[in-house]
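$ ./design --mode recover --in tokens.txt
reading tokens...
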């Protein structure tokens, strides 16, 4: 059931990048299937207490047969800063991921 999905994120590293007004973070999540970008974005924004639009997922990787997922993300000080700095396709990926989730709920 998608509603009972719970992801526990563990912070691996955090680098402050004041030039771009962001923090570059790496998280690990274990014991769950590879989560969607929408779920990861929501989990990181909840954890960091920031706007969802200020979180940009750079990469979600999982080695073959491994139960650990590595998540690389950028957490911006504001959503405007994120939209000024990041490429548009990264936001399009998130919208597609969120759209699929909405379609699954309708079915």
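writing sequence...
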């Amino acid at each position: 059931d998608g509603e009972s999905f719970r992801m526990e994120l563990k912070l691996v590293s955090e680098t402050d990048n004041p030039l771009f007004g962001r923090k570059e973070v790496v998280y690990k999540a274990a014991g769950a299937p590879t989560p969607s970008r929408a779920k990861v974005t929501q989990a990181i924004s909840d954890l960091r207490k920031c706007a969802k639009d200020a979180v940009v997922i750079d990469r979600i990787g999982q080695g073959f047969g491994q139960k650990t997922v590595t998540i690389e993300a950028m957490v911006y000080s504001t959503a405007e800063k994120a939209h000024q700095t990041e490429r548009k396709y990264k936001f399009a990926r998130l919208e597609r991921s969120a759209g699929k989730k909405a379609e699954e709920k309708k079915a």
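exit 0
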